[in-house]
Amino acid sequence: MKIKTLLIVLLAVFFLLPSCKNKKRRVPRNDKMAISMSQNAKGDSAIYGLACEGTNDSAVVLLPNQGGDPIKYRIVWAMNNHQVFGTPSIGDWICVIPQADSKNSARMVIDLDQVKGTWTHAVKPVFKDISGISRKQIREMFENMPDSIKETYLVPREYGFTLSRQSKAQAIGRIYGSNDEESPVKYPEVPHYTEWHAYNGKLILVQGRVEYNNIVYNEKEKRDTFEFVYLHDDSLAIRSTKNKEIFSYHRKDAKTVNEKAKAAVNKQAERQKQELQ
């Protein structure tokens, strides 16, 4: 009995020793390590990182991409001047631009995770120019057409873009399979965005080279720069730095965003098929 008791005590000591040693072992602080190896683009003075515990309506606590201790920024000035875009939550990827005269006060805060998603706005078609016929005459012709034909051609389309991880962007708006040459109306060109970047608190959308069905879009790369005007929940507004035009978008589901337009295109194709029979 004594031998059995002794064995139990020895086993207990054997298993307890490692746990005691682990308690004494110095655990490295994860917030000292870099959370991203990406570097700021040349000239970009914004600070990127993750929102940490302590982030609230009056301050954000940011763990920088480059590592180190979390930094607390007061955001009262930015809030009062409508320069907080999105609602930063713990774990979100955010961007902070500090005040020039106060490093711990933010001039601008952007929740970049909330920038991601599919953003669109409605675009209406316009009548094509037909030789010898004025736009007014074309409009009058359309007004006398059956409602079913009007509903087929005068269908708004949702234009915009999907912004996702690793700076990837995808255009929204082109309806593949549509025969626009046969249609009496036309839609604006769809900007084929392929990349997106944040730079000094601005949104840069890149129109890169895209090839589809042996058709090349954006032979030369083009960059469009926008300032944030508004970002909250399902609404986004950005201003072009080129012509100061403001574009307003709503968050949509990329899979269903142009269902009506696609149905209209299929209806047109079916009607043309019947006419050829």
Put the structure in a nutshell.
This protein has 277 residues and is of the alpha+beta class. Helices cover 24% and strands 35% of the residues.
Describe the structure.
The protein is an alpha+beta fold and 277 residues long. It folds into two domains: 47-111, OB fold (Dihydrolipoamide Acetyltransferase, E2P) (Beta Barrel); 117-276, no CATH class. Helix content is 24%, strand content 35%. It contains six helices and 18 strands. The strands form four sheets. It has an eight-stranded antiparallel sheet with strand order 10-9-7-18-17-16-13-12. The protein has a six-stranded mixed sheet with strand order 3-2-1-5-6-4. The radius of gyration is 28 Å and the shape is elongated. Mean pLDDT is 82; it is low at 1-31.
Output the keywords:
single chain; 277 residues; alpha+beta; OB fold (Dihydrolipoamide Acetyltransferase, E2P); 2 domains; eight-stranded antiparallel sheet; six-stranded mixed sheet; 24% helix; disordered N terminus; Lipoprotein
Question: How much helix, percentage-wise, in residues?
Answer: 10-25%
Strand residues, percent: 35-45%
Q: State the order of secondary-structure elements, H for helix, E for strand.
A: HEEEHEEEHEEHHEEEEEEEEEEH
Number of distinct helices: 6
Global morphology = elongated
Q: What is the terminal separation in angstroms? A: 100 Å
Task: Average the pLDDT over all residues and give the rounded result.
Answer: 82
